[in-house]
Design brief:
The complex is a heterodimer of chains A (113) and B (113). Chain A has 113 residues and is mainly β. Chain A has no helices and eleven strands. By secondary structure, chain B is mainly β. Classes of the chains: A mainly beta (113), B mainly beta (113).
């Protein structure tokens, strides 16, 4: 049971380039979340999904898109990367309605030059 | 939306002493309060949580207290050990809001040997 995994672990992008971050979970969780972590600001929710085929905006969605085509995967896309998107990105998942606990992946460190 | 404030931002304690981290929240509807520990280069890991119908919860050397009237909750670590050194985050969420987590900014705890 790998839990929540994230790919890649680290990436350097140039301004304007695009990329996709992959989150995968093998716990059959319904809910999945994407957060970004910046120094002194804790974690902020970007987008989330309440089930396969669904997505919703979080606190800081601008500049990002997401897709949940399969229950176990949640993709975060940056269409045109900006230096302000330099951050550490964490994915999390949760079982469902009655279970609150979110389990986090190891993170993806992204540097946009 | 929910606003969570966390204090202090850094905390240095002597091994064997106690550490206390305090958080306040703004949304009186919040009913789930987890605490996460993040070690360097890793994702946040849940260490303890408390629900709004409970005033205190303890798990070995870790305890959390909740004061709904004052809208604040605290993490207490007793008999601190070097492996307790990490960044700790509090969070708050509401069941009716898909349990989206709003995080505090984090507390860096250093345990001096």
């Amino acid at each position: 049971n790998a839990g929540v995994t994230q790919t890649p672990k680290f990436r350097v992008l140039k301004t304007g380039q695009s990329m996709t971050l992959l989150c995968a979970q093998d716990m059959n969780h319904e809910y999945m979340y994407w957060y970004r972590q910046d120094p002194g600001m804790g974690l902020r929710l970007i987008h989330y999904s309440v089930g396969e085929g669904t997505t919703a905006k979080g606190e800081v969605p601008d500049g990002y898109n997401v897709s949940r085509l399969k229950k176990q995967n949640f993709l975060l896309g940056l269409e045109s990367a900006a230096p302000s998107q330099t951050s550490v990105y964490f994915c999390a998942s949760r079982w469902g309605l009655a279970v609150e606990t979110q389990y986090f992946g190891p993170g993806t460190r992204l540097l946009v030059l | 939306g929910e606003n969570v404030e966390q204090h202090p931002s850094t905390l240095s304690v002597q091994e064997g002493d106690s550490a206390v981290i305090k958080c306040t929240y703004s949304d009186s509807a919040s009913n789930y309060f987890p605490w996460y520990k993040q070690e360097l280069g890793k994702g946040p890991q849940l260490i303890i949580d408390i629900r709004s119908n409970v005033g205190e919860k303890k798990d070995q050397r870790i305890a959390v207290t909740l004061n709904k009237t004052a809208k604040h909750f605290s993490l207490h670590i007793t008999e601190t050990q070097p492996e307790d050194s990490a960044v700790y985050f509090c969070a708050a969420s509401v069941r009716t809001n898909d349990y989206k987590l709003s995080f505090g900014a984090g507390t860096t705890v250093t345990v001096r040997a």
